[in-house]
Amino acid sequence: MAKKIALLQGNEACAYGALYAGCRFFAGYPITPSTEVAEVMARELPKLGGKFIQMEDEIGAMAAVIGASLTGMKTLTATSGPGFSLKQENIGYACITEVPCVIINVMRGGPSTGMPTGPSQSDVMQAKWGTHGDHPAICLVPASVQELFTETVRAFNLSEKYRTPVTVMPDEIVGHMRERIEFPEPGDLPVVNRAVPSVGPEEYLPYDTRFGDIPPLAAFGSGYRFHLTGLNKTADGFPTNKAEVVQREGERQLRKIEDNIDDIVLYEEYLLDDAEIAIVAFGSTARSARYAVNEARKAGIKAGLFRIITYWPFPDKQLAPLAARVKAIIVPEMNLGMTIHEVKRCAAGNSKVTGIFRVDGEPINPGQILDEIREAGK
Amino acid sequence: MAFDYEKYIRPGKLPHIWCPGCGHGIVMKGLIRAIDTLGLEKNSTAIVSGIGCASRLPGYLDFCTLHTTHGRGMAFATGIKFARPELQVICVGGDGDGVAIGGNHFIHACRRNIDMTYLIMNNNIYGMTGGQFSPTTPMGARASTTPYGNPDPPFDIAKLAIGAGATFVARGTAYHASQIDKLLVEAIRHKGFSVVEILDSCPTTYGRRNKFRSAVEMMNNLKESTVSIKAAENMSPEQLQGKVITGLLYKENKPEYIAEYQKIIDDAQEIYR
Amino acid sequence: MSQRYELRFSGAGGQGLILAGIIMAEAAAIYDGKQALQSQSYGPEARGGASKSEVIISDDPIDYPKATAVDALLALTQEACDKYSGDLKEGAILLVDSDLVKKIPKGDFLLVGFPIINTAKNEVGRTIVANIVALGAMVALTGVVTKASVEKAVLSRVPEAFRELNLKALQIGFDKAMSARETSFTQMGEEFHLSR
């Protein structure tokens, strides 16, 4: 049978991806430019017996999503810049309690109300450093409507597998543009469900590291009784101030991501094999960069593109050798310089790194990138 | 035979953090008796809280328990209950947690009318952080952040709940210990959102600053400053001056949110079958 | 056609230009089997202000999602025409509502104008279908999608009760553009500086 094809908006694809992954609970608060995610979920979830709730604010939406996940459901919320800021405390709560959930943040201009309908890529640091305290972060930055579907599915899989919140962050252009999408059939994409305890309720502890760095999470209402708190905790979920336990738990949480970098980090390389100039870009900016790379190749300049798909953890392992073999790296991004610092860190002085930055609500166009490629090629 | 509280207390989690003279332990015992009377299953009861002294309560009890972020207990509880309606959900907290930082979640929980219970222990102060004034601190009272007396008018939590649409609102005190479980039993049985405010006292951070010489004096004050709704019926406005009414203050039956949402699911599944 | 073909529908917020762009993209992507990408830009308000909807159609995968050099521009208001005509390709098609757009940018364009909104109001019977009248005209002028595909896309997007109305709007827009294309030179006068 032919696959179902549609012209779909990025935000809509994201919602359908969530449903494909088995998400049956959405809590949100309206905010441009992410509202279409909520609108599709409000329409589709009841058909599947799922639940949609519009909460009183962004903070409440994040809380409800964590609470619902604790009952064993796969849960989603969607927001944009200011709402993402408001959610941060509870995102930190999901990190320390290790409760899976997925957050869509469609990036718009800022800070503050900024440019509500304009695109931006300036929340990438917030996705890692937005909460207080230290914890690992997984953040995915899709560049097409099809990829917004597949990356949302992957976000749920990573969230369930690693017992952690995962953020998917299209920029406003990717979130709002419409493209042809082929709906994957059930079974085409892997769908991961969280591990359930292998021990009985009397023996169960929510952070029992006998089962490795990612202990299984039981569901409320499934016969397991336990306690969770946002305080630093011991294996049984109860608060502790013991220095060595707090240190060990913090390190374990970081390790559960860092030890699995290869499973999490996804990227795309385009014409990089013989490239002398590499563009490092993501989201809609990467599409602009690809256009520019093609134009540069036509003009005989050996340019290539490294497209970031998993932003956090950052693709250090790929970018360090890339920097060692190209003459120059160009980082176009819709902010005033964020990714460039990560790229420079990876490059460690091995290649020249320059940026193209825009925060005026307009995309970085291929011409701008092509000019920079020409400049770098001199 | 004396009531066996032990069977609901998590082994090894006592002593609790509450100061001598604090009423939170009395309230917790009332909650345990109510749960016992109702025969609630431990595995299908979730107790959720925010942050503060009162919010430490769930950790002591042997149920599915969740200690969340400051003020957000109600919103977490909403997610749990909406996702799994077969769970009995009880949210607990204090006055600062519930109606200051959590005020928005509180009023919208009242409006939404999800079948769960909010037990709010009102001791008129932020105790855990050392006695800053809360939205229920009386005008003129001293707190660490009102060294010259409190200029802020207080909330009446019960009136706030009624105004926001809660369908069951009751008030008791830590002094009237045997009434607490009776109010909670009725509240938990009520099909809809129920609020039970228990007036409590904090000798450590409120009493010392406000000329209460002892915890006992504060307990007596709870007794003397309140009057039951029944007794109030036969009292004149002059006699009621300065008194706080306790008992079941408001009850009505309104459509319950999750039952209403189930109709949406049924309709959607019917149409798209 | 292997190259990118870029269309821009512009006017005021609330005129249904985003929908017109979506239908054009659907016609290309779903019924004509091409690659198509629709994007939009609008102000914070739901109504009023200049609004644009862009459609890129290509045989190959589309990378840059926004217009680079526009092949065909629709302008339903003077503000939109002023704001969004700066990056028209040489020889591009410029379709305007001739009642509302009086000041035409200088350049080497194929200018076509007719009273689009008034046509919707008087000849189709509803102002609200002006976007579909304009869509029909853009289909006729650009030939970038087949008329049959656009008809299918329109039918899949509008409620049953409004199908006839919308098909009529599409047809009238199509016919008007065809005849306006023939006569636009003489009707609109010398000041428009047309090259062909």
Largest interface: A-B, 42 and 42 residues
Structural class by secondary-structure content of chain B: alpha/beta
In CATH, what is the homologous superfamily of chain C?
Pyruvate-ferredoxin oxidoreductase, PFOR, domain III
In which range does the helix fraction of chain C lie?
40-55%
CATH architecture annotation name of chain B:
3-Layer(aba) Sandwich
Main β-sheet description of chain B: 8 strands, mixed
What summary fits the major beta sheet of chain C?
A: 6 strands, mixed
Number of strands of chain C: 6
Number of helices of chain B: 12
What order do the strands of the largest sheet of chain C run in, or round the barrel if closed? 2-3-1-4-5-6
**What is the CATH class name of chain B?**
Alpha Beta
Give the oligomer, counting copies of the same chain as homo and different chains as hetero.
heterotrimer
**H/E series of chain C:** EHEEEHEEHHHH
Q: How many individual helices of chain C?
A: 6
* Mean pLDDT level of chain B: 97
Which fold does the CATH topology of chain C refer to?
A: Pyruvate-ferredoxin Oxidoreductase, domain 3
Q: How many structural domains in the coordinates of chain B?
A: 1
Shape of chain B: globular
Rounded to an integer in angstroms, the radius of gyration calculated over CA atoms of chain B is: 19 Å
Number of strands of chain B: 10
Give the % helix of chain B: 25-40%
Give me a quick take on this structure.
The complex is a heterotrimer of chains A (378), B (273) and C (196). With 378 residues, chain A is of the alpha/beta class. Helix content of chain A is 39%, strand content 21%.
